[in-house]
Design brief:
This protein is mainly alpha-helical. 61% of the residues lie in helices and 6% in strands. It has 5 helices and 2 strands; from the N terminus they run H-H-H-E-E-H-H. It has a two-stranded antiparallel ribbon with strand order 1-2. Helix 1 crosses helix 3. The longest helix is centred in the C-terminal third of the chain and has 25 residues. The chain is elongated and about 55 Å long. It starts with 10 loop residues before the first helix and ends in a 5-residue tail after the last helix.
Amino acid sequence: MAWIFTSDRPIYLQVQEKIKLSIVSGEYPPGWKMPAVRDLALEAAVNPNTVQKALSELEREGFVYTQRTSGRYITEDDTVIKQAKSELAIELVRSFLEKMAAIGYSPAEAASLIGQKVKEVDGNGDTGM
């Protein structure tokens, strides 16, 4: 997992978002035992307290849970994962439409371009991206 941070938001939020993305994408499957806080901190090159704060927030949101003697695990609640996946997708669409509007495209024009690209991809099996 590549850990690249920006200076525009707190690092713990970026760690939290990265782990959440790994959960919804299936990289971290339901029920999977997470690495120890110190191991994640070393991998991400951040302070263990930063990782701890991110994991505490993820636990509060229901993405991970702690078993007292054996560590943290990814939730097995499919509803939580599906809802987060949907929310992330909606945010990406919103951001895309804002960027398209900034260069002069209406939502309908942007949707038409997407439709054209989907036809290209479906037509020849090439992602073309």
